[in-house]
Each structure stands twice: as structure tokens, then as C-alpha cells.
Amino acid sequence: MSEISFSRSSVSEYLAEIYERMLKALGPQGWWPGDTPFEVCVGAVLTQNTNWTNVEKAIAGLRERDLLEPRAIFELPREMVAAIIRPAGYYNVKASRLRNFTAFLMEKFGGSLDAMFSLAMEELRSMLLEVNGIGPETADSILLYAGGYPSFVVDAYTMRILKRHDLVFEEAGYDEVRSLFMDSLPEDPVLFNEYHALLVALGRNYCRRSRPLCRGCPLDGI
Ligand code: SF4
Predict the structure, then answer these.
(1) 214: CA distance to ligand 1 center in Å?
(2) What's the mean per-residue pLDDT of the chain?
(3) Residue 19 contacts residue 193 (beta carbons within 8 Å)
(4) Residues within a 6 A CB radius of ligand 1
(5) Where are the domains of the chain?
(6) Which residue lies with its CA nearest to atom 6 of ligand 1?
(7) 8 φ, ψ to 5°?
(8) pTM for this one?
(9) In terms of DSSP H, where are the helices of the chain?
(10) What ligand 1 atom has the least distance to the C-alpha of 217?
(11) Contact predicate 32/40, CB 8 Å
(12) According to the model, what pLDDT value does residue 59 have?
């Protein structure tokens, strides 16, 4: 991972230094936890506004009932999906989103993730964003972590860290921040995978919303 060579520009060098410092201090994060690409997709839908432990409980409930495949969730009444994924929180909304995603998968690709992931990245991204309840962070998580596309994932931690280091303006939006990474880093899904995971770890452990722990943070003084 540390042998990836970055192109030479001031933003690229800055992002490279952030990456190298995080990797050195925090180590490889080993994302994304999930046994199959479909399980990764389910996790990407369920992880919004909750912690991963709760998502794992919801996924375990689906696994115990042999429901971790597109048709099974698609054919299950929404109320039953909601009851099973209850530990993930916002379970009615998330059940609808899961069923919307599986309906999309069934109707457009016959339930085949291989068929879905045979599309070009931006074409598939546009289609995913049209699914009710799939926003940019979920779409990019599916693309990167389940599909292996070089699509950078931006989350609240990423936004906070970049803004605190004046890499983007306060009012910068999702696509602007995604483009900053994608235009400045090598187009490498392995790098994007690790980079996003490291930003999440840094945000959780140091760059907290109300009180950043700059002293001792790997990015202190950068
Ligand atoms: S905790 Fe401080 S040094 Fe670390 S990323 Fe946040 S603002 Fe930067």
C-alpha cells in the first residue's frame, strides 16, 4: 500500500502525505467487512446513521434466515424485512431502501451482481442514484467495496477533516470533494478503499465533531 506512487502536484502531494501519515499511524484497515459482494451492498444500505455493530446484527438476522440474496429480500414483505433488520435502526426506511435496491437489481439485471458490475462505472453510478433511498455515499460504497470500481467514497469524516485542513471550502459538496480525490490520486480501487477506511478511523479516533484531538493525531502539524 505504501508503495503506491502519487503524481506530482501540490494537492496530490498533500493528499499523499495525509494518506501516508494515516497508514503509518493507524495501519491497514481491512475494509469492507462482508462475505459476499451482495452482503457488502446490504451493509452499505444499512450503515447510514448507525454504527457497524448494529449493522452486523441486522446482517446476521438476514443470514440466519437465508435471506442474503437479492430475490429473497425482494420477495419478502417490507414489514418482515423491517422486523429482521430492526437492530440497524431506522428499520422501516432502511427496509424500503433494501427492497428498492433489490427490485432494481432484479428488474434491470435479473438479480445478478455480475451483470450489474459489468457496466461502466459512471453509467452504473447514475443508475444507482436513481434508486429511491440510494444517495452518493451509498452508491460509491457499493461501487468501490462491492464492485471494485475506482469510485471514491466521501462521508462526514472526510468532509470534516478536509475542511479543517482547508483543502476544500466550507460549502463544498459531496461531488466536489469526491472529484478532488479522484482527480488528484491514481485511479486505484485498492488505494481508494484504504484511504476512505483510514479517514473513517481518523475521524472516529481523533477528528471528532465537537472536540478534535489534534495533539497526538497523525495529521497534527501537516
Ligand atoms: S484532529 Fe486535528 S490534526 Fe487531526 S485531522 Fe482533525 S483537525 Fe486535523
Answers:
(1) 5
(2) 94
(3) no
(4) 161, 164-165, 202, 206-207, 212-214, 217, 219-220
(5) 10-30+153-205, 37-146
(6) 207
(7) -100, 105
(8) 0.93
(9) 10-26, 37-46, 52-64, 70-75, 78-84, 91-109, 113-116, 121-129, 136-141, 156-164, 174-184, 189-205
(10) 4
(11) yes
(12) 97
C-alpha 52 – ligand 1 centre gap (Å)? 23
pLDDT digits (tens, 9 = 90+) for 13-72: 999 999 999 999 999 998 988 889 999 999 999 998 888 999 999 999 999 999 999 999
Q: How far is the CA of 17 from the centre of ligand 1 (A)?
A: 14
CATH architecture of the domain formed by 37-146: Orthogonal Bundle (1.10)
Q: Best substitution site from 17, 208, 217 to test ligand 1's pocket, by max atoms within 8 Å of Cβ? A: 217
Query: Phi and psi for 85 in degrees, rounded to 5?
Result: -95, 10
Output the CA 21–ligand 1 centroid distance in Å: 12
* Contact between residue 82 and residue 91 where contact means Cβ atoms under 8 Å apart: yes
How many residues are listed for the chain in this entry? 222
Work out which ligand 1 atom sits closest to the CA atom of 164. 7
pLDDT at residue number 2:
44
Q: Which amino acid is at 105?
A: L
Task: Give nearest CA residue, ligand 1 atom 8.
Answer: 219
Residue 84 near residue 67, CB atoms below 8 Å: yes
Longest alpha-carbon distance in the chain: 53
Position 5 scores a pLDDT of 53
Dig out the grid coordinates for 101 from the structure. 435496491
Nearest-CA residue for ligand 1 atom 2 is 214
Cα gap 95→99, rounded to integer Å = 6
Cβ–Cβ < 8 Å for 165, 150: no
